[in-house]
Input
Amino acid sequence: MTTYVILIILMAATLLFWLIWNIRQYYKRASRLIASEGFEIEAKCEVCNRQFRIPAIQYMKHGATKEKSTAKTKVKGVVLDNSPVFSYYAKKVDCPFCHRRTWAQALNYGEYQRRYQPVIMRLALGQFVLIAIGGFVLCKIFLVISKIL
Output
């Protein structure tokens, strides 16, 4: 009985590690994709009111940084499309003019969103399939090991 409990705990830990590792891989691939494109966000500092360009990968770099936005969902045909259309999107970044970490509004965030959302969704779908297949294989491996024990 104790070997099965240990095996179940080991299987759960392995599957959790597989999930976390794949999510990390997804973010790394998405970041590399955005960095390779060289898209730049046109940002406007809310303190000194000056505009500057910042690479999109640098603007979207930290997931834990503060952000504020105003968005509406758009209607396509007779169905309500759930993707937000941002009328205002700002993030805390370092302003090259006033040299302070302050809110910078992304003026062309809609273009960034239209350009990368389909690509990122395809990448996420591929990663999800990889997670499912890998999880299935890991479960089968643990099933075979449990039959041996």
Summary: The chain is about 55% helix and 30% strand. The chain has one domain: 2-148. The longest helix spans residues 109-148.
